[in-house]
Every structure is written in C-alpha cells, then in structure tokens.
Amino acid sequence: MTRLLVIGLALVGVVSIGRTVMGPADVGHFRTVEGREEYVGYYQRAMGSMPAPSSVQDIPTDFGTVRVYIWDAGNAAADRDSYPIVLLPGRSSGVPMWSANVSALIHSRQVIAFDALGDAGLSVQSAPLTSMGDQAAWIDQVVTAVAPRGVHLVGHSFSGATATAYARLHPQRVRSLTLLEPVFTFAYPPVAKLGWVTIAALPGLPESLRNKALGRIAGEDSAGSDPLALMIKAGSEHFDANLPTPSPLTKEEAESLTMPVYVAIAGKESLAGGRDAAERAEELLPGARVQIWKDATHSLPMQEAEPLTQVLEPFWHQAESAR
After folding, report:
1. Stretch (H or E) spanning 25
2. pLDDT tens track for 85-128
3. Is residue 112 a contact partner of residue 66, using CB atoms and an 8 Å limit?
4. Are 288 and 282 a contacting pair, CB within 8 Å?
5. What gap in Å lies between CA 43 and CA 37, rounded to an integer?
6. What is the pLDDT of residues 269-321, one digit of tens each?
7. How far is Cα 71 from Cα 264, in angstroms, rounded to an integer?
8. Measuring CA to CA, which of 143, 179, 294, 295 is 20 to 30 A from 219?
9. Separation CA 8–CA 321 (nearest Å)
10. Residue 1, Cα to own-chain centre: how many angstroms?
11. Is the pTM of this model over 0.85?
12. Which of 155, 108, 115 is nearest to 28 (CA)?
C-alpha cells in the first residue's frame, strides 16, 4: 500500500467531512467537467483491478440514481442459503475502495456495493439529502430492489454513521451491522485534526499546501501514483458533497440496534475516536463485539482485508444461525 493510498483513505473520513460541515444543503455535484473526467478516469482504472461484477445496475430512488455492483458467490449454494453483504464506501471514494475486500469475500457469499448517493462516484443525486432519515431512505429503496430478504451491512468511515442510521430506522432489513472506523458514530473526529481538515477541504487550494495539510492529517508523505488513492484525492478536490452531518449515537438510539454488531477501531491515526470510541461503543452496545486493530490506521478495511474477512465470516454465520 502506497503512502498516498493511506492519505487518500484518510480523506474519506476527514477532508470530506470538513466540506460536509461547511457546505449548504443542496445536491452534490462535480464542480467542473474536467474534474469529473479526472475522477472517473482513476475510478475506471481502480475498478479494473477488481473481479468483474456479475451485474451492474443503476437503481432509481426518490433522491437520485444509485450505481450498484453485484458479485455472485463462487458457490451458488451460498447465494441461495445466506444473506448478501452490502458495502457502503467512505467519503469521496466509491465502490473501488473495496477492491481488496471484494476479492476476499466473494468466495463464500454474494457481495453488493453501492456508490453513495450525493458523493463522488457514478451515482447521480437529484434531490437534497437533508437528514440521516433521507440517507436511510435511499439505501432502503436500493436494498428493497436488490436484496429484499435482508443484508449484512458494512460501513466504513462516514458511511459507518450512515449504516448505523439505516440499521436504526430499518432494523428488519439488517441481519448484522459491521462498522469499520465509523466517524460521527461513537465519537467526533479528533480536535487536533480539524484545523488541517478545514485547510485541506478548501476548493482551489495550491497543490503543495493541500499535500502538506493531507500529510498532517494522515501522518504520511503525499507521494505516489496508486489509482485508488488518486481517485479518492480527485473526489475530495472536485466533488462538492452536500450531505447531512451525523451526530454520535445516543443511548436511546443505540437501543434500537438489536441486530448483532461488530465495531473495528484503528489503533493508529484513528479518525473514529480511537480507544474512547471503542469504550463508548462497548457502553452503548454491551452485546456488540468491539475490536481495536492496533497496527491499522483509518484505512483499516484495506490494510486488514484478509484478517478482517477471517473475523467477519464467523460473525455473519453466527448472526444467521441466531435468526
């Protein structure tokens, strides 16, 4: 994994959150045609490194059209007998961020991944998303279309909060909930990062200053040419995402999460809140499994793809057996 990939994935949880806080409630869009072309070019290159999907669909919802990729399991019986996994990407990224995870997961069950509506990707927003209820609504419309029996829901970074909102509001659809470095879920991002977040999120910022800000955020140098990292960086620079900012779970909200829950927190450069977030998750969700990955950063799903699969497969199997 290149250093820029780590920084790009840090953007998922930090830089775009800064823009979310500052932007008006409107429809997300690329600022320029050229910016979109740059992003899509890296997106296509990054998708080229993934297994070919079994199906690609554009699902209409009340808030816009959602790009969905489906990978059938290598074992047809697994698709018939188990619930699919739905992957929600972090901010400014899109489905390609799950490259390493999809490759590891499709051996045993169907995998479905969305480009988040109102964010960088190939989904197209047509109406404002003004609340976490709106976020949950479009996800439910997609899940109804592609996996009506229910899903194992996985969210990273900002989409950890989105996945949590969906699970709270539509618990009948969620067989289990997996939260990977979820920001604005159990704690706010570290205060020390927020000044550099604001700088890095400014449109038109000189490249040298942006790279300095990204380096301060991620604790890495911003050099490299990985298509996935460059895609995420292009998304953060060129896409104006105007989405509701979630708030950490309250005790009352947590009580509605009755499905099995797994929470993964990074041991280094955590943007989810680190050990404080882990302790809060254990307090709010005493039945959840909460794990700190001591050598991982906010890029945890990519850095720990194979070990994470080894943890999640028995978690999902147990969740299905309990139903």
Report:
1. none
2. 999 998 878 999 999 999 999 988 999 999 999 999 999 999 99
3. no
4. yes
5. 10
6. 888 999 999 999 999 999 999 999 999 988 899 899 999 999 999 999 999 98
7. 24
8. 179
9. 38
10. 19
11. yes
12. 115
Q: What is the DSSP string of 259-307?
A: S-EEEEEESSS-SS-HHHHHHHHHHH-TTSEEEEETT--TTHHHHTHHH
The fold of 3-321 is Rossmann fold (3.40.50)
Residues 6+ apart with CB under 8 A from 179: 155, 160, 163, 164, 185, 261, 262, 263, 264, 281
Residue 36 tokens, joined: 């979109």
Strand partners, 265: 292
- Token pair for residue 144? 């109804």
The amino acid that residue 199 corresponds to is I
The CA–CA distances, whole Å, from 199 to 29, 204, 243 equal: 21, 11, 19
Q: How far apart are CA 248 and CA 253, in angstroms?
A: 10
DSSP code per residue over 135-173: HHHHHHHHHHHH-TT-EEEEEETHHHHHHHHHHHH-GGG
Tokens of 249: 């779970």
| 164, 177 contact by CB (below 8 A) | yes
Whole-number Å distance between alpha carbons of 180 and 183:
9
Q: Can you list the pairs that 285-291 forms with residues at least 24 positions away whose Cβ atoms lie under 8 Å?
A: 285/254, 285/257, 285/261, 287/260, 287/261, 288/260, 288/261, 288/262, 288/263, 289/260, 289/261, 289/262, 289/263, 289/315, 290/262, 290/263, 290/265, 291/262, 291/263, 291/264, 291/265
Please report, as a single letter, which amino acid is at residue 205: L
**Exposure string for 198-230, b = 16+ CB within 10 A, e = fewer:** ebbbeeeeeeeebbbbbbbbbebebebebbbbb
